[in-house]
Amino acid sequence: MPDTELAPPRPAEEGRPRLEVAEIFRAHGESYRRTHALSEPQRKAMSAIEKCRTAELGGHLDVCTGCGSQRPSYNSCRNRHCPKCQALRQAKWISERQARILPTHHFHVVFTVPAELHPLARAAPARFYDLLFESASETLLELGADPKRLGGQLAITAVLHTWTRDLRLHPHLHCVVSGGALERDGRRWRSARRGYLLPVKVLGALFRGKMMAKLDAAWQRGAFESSVIDERSFHFIKSAAYRKPWVVYAKTPFAGPAQVFAYLGRYTHRVAISNQRLLSVDERGVHFVTRGSKTATLEPEQFIGRFMQHVLPDGYVKIRHYGLLAASNVRGRLERARKLLEPVPANVAVWRRLAVALICVGSRDTIAAAITWRERVMVLTGKDPMSCARCGALLERLPMPSSAPEVLDSS
User: Does any domain span residue 288?
Assistant: First the structure.
C-alpha cells in the first residue's frame, strides 16, 4: 500500500512502544508458518522474537528494598534480528571499537545495487552479500591506493543493510572510511581533503564492473541457478543491471573521530524495523511509520513476509573491516598510521596496544567486564535499571516464582 500522510504518533506510555513486532508474530506467526516455507534461520528468528522477555525464557523477580514492590524481569532472546535485544550489544560493540579508531576525519560512503539484481539476492543471499562486500571494499581500496589519488591504504568498516523503510528488499553497504591513507612503505599519512574523498562517479563505475564480473563468475559456478532463475533470465538480469546507474554516494564527513563509531553504531545493530515505528494493527493491517510523517499499511502476512526476507543466514558476518582495519594490519600498519597522525605519550600507547591485543586474541570479555550491563543501560538511558521506579530504592534480584504474572506489585 502507498505511504500516507499522518500526524506524528503520540508518545508511547512510560517510554514503552505501543506495539511490538513480537505481538504481531504471536498473533499471526502460526498461520504464516503453515502457509509459507521458511528457512531454519527464519524459523529460529521468529520463534526467538515471539518468546523474547516472556515467561517462556525464564527470568527473575526484582523486589524493591524500600517500598517492597515487585516486578518480573524476563530473559531476552539475544537474537540479532530482535528489535528488543540490540541496544546493549550496540553499546558493547562501540566501546570495543574505540581502541582502533584513527584520530582523523572520516567519510560515510554508501554502496547500493539496482533493483534488477534483487532476484539474485533472494536466490542465494549469503553469496550475493559476500560479493557486495568484496566489490565495494576492493573498489575503495583500489582507488585509495591509486598514486593519482591518495596513494595509500584506507581504513574501512562496512555494515550490511538489506531493507527500505517500508521493509522492501534493498541490499546496500554503509561504509565508514578514513579521510586519508597510509602510504605503502608506512612512512607517511596522506590526508584527503575535508569535503572530498574519491569521485563518486568513478566509484560507481568501478563498483559496477567488479560486482557484475563477480556475479557472472558465480553464475558460471552455479551459485545463483534456481527454479526461477535460468540462464536466459540471468542474462536478462545482467543486461538490465548494466543499463542502470549504480548509486554510490559519500555523505558529509564527520566532524571528528569521536563521532565515528557512535554514529556507525546506529547502523551496526539496527534491525529491519524498530518497535517504536509501529503504530497499530487493525482490520486493514499493520500501520507503521516509514519516513518523517509518512506511514505505510501492510496486511499482517505481508508484513511478516517482508520482515523475514531480512533475516540473515546463521553465522553470517554483517560487519566487516578492510584495509588498515583488517585483522592482519591491526597490530602493525594501523598503529603505524596512528603514530603518524597523533603521537601519544608512551604510557598511553602501551595501554592502547594492550586493549587492541586483547580484542585481537578474542579476550573481549576481559575488556567488557570493566563495563557492566547496568552501567551501559545507565549511559544509554540515563536511568538506573536496578532502582525502583516508584521510590528510587535499590532493587534486589530474586529467583522467579514458579508462576509469575506479567506485573507484580505487593503494595
Answer: no
Residue 321 is assigned to a structural domain of this protein: yes
Phi (first) and psi of residue 223, to 5 degrees: -70, -30
Regions of the chain with pLDDT less than 50 = 1-13, 344-354, 356-370, 405-411
Instruction: Specify if 54 maps to a domain.
Output: yes
Instruction: Give the domain extent around 21.
Output: 17-83+372-399
CA 159 – CA 110 distance, rounded (Å): 10
Q: Order of strands across the sheet with 155-163?
A: 248-250, 106-112, 169-178, 155-163, 319-323
CA angle 3, 8, 14 (to 5 degrees): 130
Count of CB atoms situated within 10 Å of the CB of 65:
11
- Interval 52-75: pLDDT, tens: 988 888 888 888 888 888 888 888
Helical spans, DSSP H, in 221-295:
231-243, 260-268
Give the Å distances, CA to CA, from 324 to 199, 328, 360.
Answer: 21, 8, 14
- Residue 217 identity: A
User: Does 46 share its domain with 126?
Assistant: no
d(CA 155, CA 152): 10
User: Roughly what angle, to the nearest 10 degrees, separates helices 21-35 and 300-308?
Assistant: 90
Helix/strand/coil percent split, the chain, to 5: 40, 20, 40
Number of domains in the chain: 2
Amino acid (one-letter) located at 203? L
323 and 384, same domain (yes or no): no
Kindly provide the b/e burial profile for residues 21-56, where b requires at least 16 CB atoms within 10 angstroms of the residue's own CB. Answer: bbbbbeebbeebbeeeebeebbebbbbbbbbbbbee
Helix (H), strand (E) counts: the chain: 13, 15
DSSP 8-state assignment for residue 400: P
The whole-number pLDDT of residue 110 equals 95
Q: What is the pLDDT of residues 271-301, one digit of tens each?
A: 999 999 999 998 889 999 999 889 999 999 9
Q: What does the block give as the cell for 410? A: 505487593
Task: Name the strand (E) or helix (H) holding 123.
Answer: helix 118-123
> Cell for 48?
526467538
Prediction pTM value: 0.81
